[in-house]
Here is the input.
Amino acid sequence: MVDLSVKIGDVTLQNPIMPASGAFSWDYGDVIDLNRLGGLVAKTICREPRLGNPTPRMAETEAGIIQSIGLPGKGIDYFLENIVPEYNKWEPPLIVSVSADTAEDFAAMTRDLSVDGVDVIEVNISCPTKAPSGGNFAMHSEHTKMVMDGIRAATDKPVWAKLSPNAGDIVSIAVAAEEAGADAVVLCNTFLSLKIRTDNFRPALGNKFGGLVSPALKPIVMRMVYQVAQECTIPVIGIGGVTKAEDVVEYMLAGASGVGIGYAGFRNPTALTTIIDDLEEWCDERGIKEISELIGAVRDDDIEWDPLVAASHGV
Ligand SMILES: Cc1cc2nc3c(=O)[nH]c(=O)nc-3n(C[C@H](O)[C@H](O)[C@H](O)COP(=O)(O)O)c2cc1C
Here is the structure.
């Protein structure tokens, strides 16, 4: 039987499947066995309690949902006291996700989260709907480097930097995160989007902009994972549009060491464990002994390609 384990820096996951932040909580444990997941990824938390964005926060489009939840939550103190212990009832590593408005607070929150029971700190420097304009640190490489430098100095825990697909040149942003000492990059957050209602001419979302979430993201994020994996030496985690085991295989062939799953879990809460089962079967049928063999195994050596030129030309 295939060994599904993967290493993300110093962290070993029993398989590459993780929930995506914000699309999951420990109460999925009522429906699936959370001990089967590669990691448990908590919803992004902020320092103070937040109500989140004005409603409506979700709208349907032909291409998926756009959402602008706006990081509601009860703040870091509540999180450490009440939510970390809930996740710690389960065995997989706990990946907490954090957002802050300033580089200083990002560093301070990272320090505050560096406690027993937290295995990895994912820094959400890329939320497209926290600021109404969609701005965030991960839009520019120099801002990424600056915020990541402070975060790195604040903790010895593994730090994964969640990046934005809305940045023009994802490769230079990922390189900046690596240079600042990130242990992995997570590609990526949602795509900044807009829907306008034709009955009243108003934006469909209370925040105006939202982030698109859909299987339609996958080919675009695949391209980003591939480009970044060519240029960075740290592991890449692919998130966007995974709905089945073959999607995981595709991301791994492009260079991902793990994947996150959001949307598919909304459609079917058992999707994550089904995908693990199917992935195991897919590998066994093909005689693959270790799933890590798939990482970056795309066969494209015969196609000439310069990753930096491709990145600078944009999409
Ligand atoms: C309702 C909802 C809430 C989300 N909240 C967060 C969040 O708190 N932090 C974060 O980093 N990403 C958040 N995301 C983005 C997801 O983690 C993920 O990057 C995105 O949904 C793409 O993956 P998918 O195509 O598998 O859904 C959220 C997505 C959705 C749909």
About this structure: Residues 188 and 289 are 29 Å apart (CA to CA). The mean pLDDT is 95.
